[in-house]
Design goal:
Blueprint lengths: L2 H32 L6 H16 L6 H22 L5 H23 L6 H12 L2 H10 L7 H23 L13 E4 L2 E4 H23 L1 H11 L1 H6 L4 H23 L9 H15 L5 H21 L4 H7 L1 H11 L10
Antiparallel strand pairs: 1-2
Helix pairs in contact: 1-8, 1-9, 1-11, 1-12, 1-13, 2-5, 2-7, 2-11, 2-12, 3-4, 3-6, 4-5, 5-11, 6-11, 8-9, 8-11, 9-11, 12-13, 13-14
């Protein structure tokens, strides 16, 4: 291996690792707050990347149908609960949050698709379509089972994953899509040429990680998330609504997934099921961090990106196998160092 190949592989590994780090943080956030192993995290990547590519081509992405009908389903559930509890004042809020806003976003996308707007406007439309899907998915699939065991929540996650993957195939088809790069420039670092898109991915990922740190350390909502992650029952006792933190964690996870999909869509061709594999590598990174530490999860994700990059050079046919084999020794180590603890019971 020559020095230029080594540097090129490091560049590729750092770029991929930055995306995996974002996904690892999202998975860890959702797990610590809601105890959900969020298997469908990668679907937000797919929805965002393919929606952006379709908008650039002047086509209406099927994401608006998922958003609209998902919002109607969540509204129906909330309306039933509010009616049963005779909480009539909640009905206007439910209608605005789950019906009016999703339909308004869908209408805006439908209007904008054939008009080929500026790239940054399309990005905002994609975020407006994909990010609300996080709380909607939580309300439909997870909130009714918030007190269930981790195993039950994992089974639900698998079901949600298959449903969203099927919808992705229906609305986007089996063809791969790729969006325009944000920046076409290239930089020379010795013998290695670095694309501006790779720099943009790393810098944007770092900025988002810093923004998440500020959220957790300096804001009331971030502290509520941390409190719920530390002790869900204790958080409820002191007045922190765990339903709100659940919605917020899924909102952040959807935003991180959509943001990641927008970042990588100009780098690689994505298909309807590509996001699952990317999200799974983020899970490996979170697992390397022990599923407990955000800095360790980010570091583990960077290690996954580098390992994948070098594996693609030495044994490209087995690079996925090499990456996912990391799970085995990590699970063995975690099982040896931990003691069985009964899950918290919520009254």
């Amino acid at each position: 291996m020559t020095s230029d190949i080594f540097l090129w592989l490091v560049q590729d590994g750092v770029t991929n690792g930055a995306i995996y780090a974002l996904l690892a943080l999202a998975l860890l956030l959702v797990f610590t707050v809601t105890r959900v192993i969020f298997v469908p995290q990668g679907e937000f990547i797919t929805f965002a990347a393919l929606s952006l590519a379709m908008l650039e081509a002047g086509r209406v992405p099927g994401t608006i149908y998922i958003l609209a009908f998902g919002g109607l389903a969540a509204a129906a559930i909330e309306t039933f609960v509010a009616t049963r509890e005779r909480a009539w004042r909640r009905l206007p809020h439910i209608a605005l949050l789950y019906v009016v806003l999703p339909l308004a976003v869908a209408a805006a996308v439908w209007w904008a698709a054939p008009r080929r707007l500026e790239h940054w406007m399309l990005v905002l439309l994609v975020l407006a379509m994909v990010v609300p899907l996080g709380p909607i998915v939580y309300r439909i699939a997870y909130q009714p089972l918030a007190s269930a065991s981790v195993l039950v929540l994992f089974i639900v996650s698998m079901a949600v994953h298959y449903v969203l993957t099927g919808l992705s195939l229906v609305f986007f088809g089996g063809e791969g899509l790729r969006s325009r790069p944000f920046w076409d420039a290239k930089f020379s670092l010795g013998v290695v040429t670095i694309t501006a898109q790779s720099v943009w991915v790393v810098v944007a990922s770092a900025l988002l990680i810093l923004a998440l740190w500020y959220l957790f350390e300096r804001t009331v909502y971030g502290k509520a998330l941390r409190a719920t992650a530390m002790n869900r029952v204790g958080a409820r006792i002191v007045g922190i609504p765990t339903v709100l933190t659940g919605h917020l964690s899924f909102l952040l996870a959807a935003f991180i997934g959509a943001f990641s999909g927008i970042l990588i869509s100009p780098i690689t061709t994505l298909y309807y099921d590509t996001g699952f594999l990317i999200g799974l590598k983020g899970f490996v990174g979170a697992l390397l961090g022990g599923m407990a530490s955000y800095p360790l999860a980010a570091a583990g994700s960077l290690a996954v990106g580098l390992l994948e990059s070098f594996s693609s050079f030495w044994a490209s046919a087995y690079k996925e196998t090499i990456v996912f084999t990391l799970i085995i020794p990590m699970l063995v180590w975690l099982s040896l160092r931990s003691h069985h603890v009964e899950e918290e019971k919520e009254e």
